[in-house]
Amino acid sequence: MDLVEFLRARLDRDEQTARACSGAPWKAAPSGTVSTGDPGTDDPAFVATAENGAYAEHIARHDPARALAEVSAKRQIVDDYEKQSWILGQGHRTPELDAAQAVRETVLRLLALPYAHHPAYREEWRP
Fold it and tell me: What does the pLDDT look like over 69-113, one tens digit per residue?
């Protein structure tokens, strides 16, 4: 498994998990509870209870909609890296294009860092 395959697998899993939890936006209450549902609904769905309002706000800010948006953005970065790799592989090389691709690779390595605990992560990917 190379770095691109690793990232795609992690992003697929992140998307799968977020889709399983998606629905209405998550809302935090000062009491430390997080729930979903329309603000005008009398019966919001319970998501979690946190120790305090700050923890609840953190949980709510990382709701499935945000996770899906982050997956989409990261996939665009990976796609751009692969596209540019293909172009370089076709012999369209200049020092500037090679340098730009090196930066893209560094970005992929940084995107992989949050998954460093995963058993498939390789230390040589660490930036």
Answer: 999 999 999 999 999 999 999 998 999 999 999 999 999 999 999
**Rounded Cα–Cα distance for residues 42 and 37 (Å):** 9
d(CA 85, CA 98): 9
pTM value?
0.86
- DSSP-based three-state secondary structure for 86: helix
pLDDT tens per residue, range 30-43 = 888 888 865 556 66
- State both tokens at 78: 């990976």
Q: Using CA of residue 11, residue 87, residue 104, residue 116, what is the dihedral sign? A: positive
The Cα-based distances of 75 to 29, 49, 82, 89, 91 in angstroms read: 33, 32, 10, 21, 25
127 Cβ contact list (under 8 Å, min separation 6): 106, 109, 110, 113
Mean pLDDT score across all residues of the chain: 91
36 beta partners: 26, 45
Q: Supply φ then ψ for residue 125, to 5 degrees.
A: -80, -15
Q: Residue 62 corresponds to which tokens in the numbers above?
A: 């990382």
